[in-house]
Amino acid sequence: MIFTNKRLFALGTLCLTFLSQSASAQDVTAELPPEVRSLLQREMVQIDAAMKSIHGAIVRGDHDVVEKQGKAIHDSFILQQSITPEGRKALKNAVPEGFLQLDQGFHALAAQLSDSGGRKDTAAQLKIFGQLTQACVTCHSHYVYERFGGLDTQ
Ligand code: HEC
Fold first, then answer.
1. How far apart are the C-alpha atoms of 121 and 63, rounded to whole Å?
2. Whose CA is nearest to atom 35 of ligand 1?
3. Does residue 150 sit within a domain?
4. Whose CA is nearest to atom 43 of ligand 1?
5. 116, 125 in Cβ contact below 8 A?
6. Distance 136 CA to ligand 1 centre (A)
7. Diameter over CA atoms, the chain
8. Ligand 1: nearest atom to the Cα of 37
9. What's residue 43's pLDDT?
10. Is residue 38 situated within a structural domain?
11. How far apart are CA 63 and CA 110, in angstroms?
12. Which of the listed residues 8, 53, 66, 89 has the most CB atoms within 10 Å of its CB?
């Protein structure tokens, strides 16, 4: 259902790509309405900032910050929050199922990170922080390869 349009669209894009002899693929968000795309970008910038402050907090043993910022990443779940129903539909239509699954897994990890802050468990924080970073790279290398061309597919 959702994917029928997308498939057709992808086929069109593929033909155009062939016609223009261009080998470069588009990022998954390239076709989103501009306001939905900019919301997603805003969320990413916030997540980026939260990850940096979590990193500093882990190495300082500042467990409260790990707990709060982990929760902030989890709560930023764009598909459930800041986005309008139409925007959500546009986003779901534009991205493949694998992207949505990665997004869900990513937010689940953020919740685990927050919990490990609450437990003052530095070893768990280190492990989950690494898994979260892996999740950033996995999603970017699969779905944002045009913008982030420096990433190999992980
Ligand atoms: C489920 C997929 C997914 C995950 C997971 C993900 N990102 Fe992103 N990220 C994107 C997409 C898609 C874009 C490109 C948005 C655009 O330009 O249309 C992006 C863009 C960004 C940007 C650029 C924002 C801008 O436009 O200025 C930053 C920074 C970023 N991500 C950081 C992160 C960090 C840090 C993580 C992990 C903690 C992460 N992302 C995890 C999908 C993801």
1. 8
2. 48
3. no
4. 139
5. yes
6. 7
7. 57
8. 18
9. 86
10. yes
11. 14
12. 66
* Alpha carbon of 56 to ligand 1 centroid (Å): 20
Domain membership of residue 152 (yes or no) is no
**Residue 48 Cβ < 6 Å to ligand 1:** yes
pLDDT band at 31 (very low <50, low <70, confident <90, very high): confident
Residue 97 lies in a domain: yes
| Atom of ligand 1 at shortest range from CA of 106 | 5
Confirm if 120 and 72 have CB atoms less than 8 A apart: no
CATH classification at residue 79 = 1.20.120.10
Cα–Cα distance measured from residue 109 to residue 100, given in angstroms and rounded to the nearest whole number: 14
Domain count, the chain: 1
Burial of 41: CB neighbours in 10 Å, binned 0-12, 13-18, 19+:
exposed
139 lines ligand 1 (CB under 6 A): yes
The Cα 65–Cα 143 span in angstroms is 30
Domain that holds residue 83: 2-21+29-143
Task: Output the residue whose Cα is nearest ligand 1's atom 1.
Answer: 103
pTM for the structure as a whole: 0.82
Task: Determine the pLDDT at residue 47.
Answer: 92
